[in-house]
From TrEMBL:
GO terms for cellular component: membrane. This is Molybdopterin oxidoreductase Fe4S4 domain protein. The keyword Plastid does not apply. GO terms for biological process: respiratory electron transport chain. Residues 13-71 form the 4Fe-4S Mo/W bis-MGD-type domain. The keyword S-adenosyl-L-methionine does not apply. Gene3D superfamilies: 3.40.50.740, ADC-like domains.
């Protein structure tokens, strides 16, 4: 507990509440982040978590440490990257707005040239529930114009 008190009073440390990425349960997790060194210091169950009531499984408690391991993640991507100029051109940093617009423009061009059935949407059980699966299939059918939708739950 002494370390925890020191962590909470360190000036560059900040607690960020997020959703645990390991399964579809949606447990809230409080991550203590050292902003100065850009490292996760600690993770614990958020007391505001409806699904987990402040508790976490072993993956939620200790599974975040790979973020700080230079042998696993030597160069984490922290900003969108766009390759302009075709194959072999270097990836260049971009803003989120540029990356989203670039993706939308490329997707439109692909659909125009090859048709909507050349695009596929894939869903995942990791996330906030059936609503995301519904939105994925709705987007693919109504916006893209294809029935090419898959989900990991079919396996």
């Amino acid at each position: 507990m002494r370390l925890l008190k020191e962590v909470n009073h360190h000036m560059s440390y900040e607690t960020i509440t997020t959703v645990c990425p390991y399964c579809g349960t949606g447990c809230l997790i409080d991550c203590t982040v050292d902003r100065e060194n850009n490292r996760v210091i600690e993770a614990k169950g958020s007391p505001h978590g409806v699904n987990n009531d402040g508790r976490l499984c072993l993956k939620g408690l200790y599974g975040w440490d790979y973020l700080n391991d230079p042998k696993i993640l030597t160069k984490r991507i922290r900003t969108p990257l766009i390759r302009r100029g075709g194959k072999g051109a270097p990836l260049k940093p971009a803003t989120w707005e540029e990356a989203i617009q670039y993706t939308a423009d490329r997707l439109k061009a692909i659909i125009k040239e090859y048709g909507p059935d050349t695009v596929m949407g894939a869903g995942s059980a990791r996330g906030p529930g059936n609503e995301v699966g519904y939105l994925t299939q709705k987007f693919m059918r109504a916006v893209i114009g294809t029935n090419n939708v898959d989900h990991c739950a079919r396996i």
